[in-house]
Amino acid sequence: MTSRTFGRISVTLPDLADGYLSNVASLESGRGIVQDFKYADTDLRDLDLANARLLTGRITNLHASRVRLIEVRIDSVEFDGCDLGNLQWVDSKLSRVVFRNCKLMASNLSGLTLDNVLFDNCKLDYSTFEKVRATGPLAFARCVLTESTFTGCDLTASVFNDCTLRDIEFGRGTYKATDLRGNDLTALRGIGNLTKVLIDRVQQVELTQALMTELDVTFGDDLDETAPRRAL
To answer: How far apart are CA 162 and CA 7, in angstroms?
Structure first.
């Protein structure tokens, strides 16, 4: 199997060969399982899947205005160039899954278990990650996560590589060995929750700046020294 390495982790990628993937007209199946498939160049108003399994496949250029996925198991699947609007993804497990060049803006991802998952060059602005657990390698590479929020997540040993993290908020959660090297950290929020993360020494200044902004600190030498003093 092929893999990509980011920092101290390697993400195992789906092992796909077009020769044994068959075109399908829908991701829905009466048996609840779609396997060894290709699904491409589709525009949908709504995509709703529940209690389904997508096994070994490639989803390319899927555009959907509203996506709702509940208890969907995905194994060895690649999403490429997809735009999943108003994505609500709940109580699901993903293993060996790649999202490449995808737009997942304003998504709500809740109760997901991620094992060998890679988000590569994706737009995840304004998204909410709630109770998401990385049980295996998880990497965000060259992604935009402006104003996204992580709450109650376990991102142990996950990697953010060359990402835009402006005004991203890390709520309470587990971030042991989460690798934040190679990113601008000056506009992070929730700094006090990032215990035991991994950074470069030069990023200490960036974290300090983020903390000062979050605390709304006023420096004494910025005060108007000409202001009248209160009489004793």
So the answer is: 11
The model carries a pTM of 0.92
* Closest C-alpha among 75, 39, 72, 41 to residue 58: 39
**Cα separation of 126 and 214, whole Å?**
19
Give the separation between CA 105 and CA 226, rounded to whole angstroms: 49
For residue 69, the cross-strand partners are 49, 89
Query: What residue type is assigned to position 42 of the chain?
Result: T
pLDDT at 231: 58
- Residue whose C-alpha is closest to residue 3's, from 79, 12, 78: 12
- Give 160-178 pLDDT, tens digit per residue: 999 999 999 999 999 999 9
- The CATH-assigned architecture of domain 21-214 is 3 Solenoid (2.160)
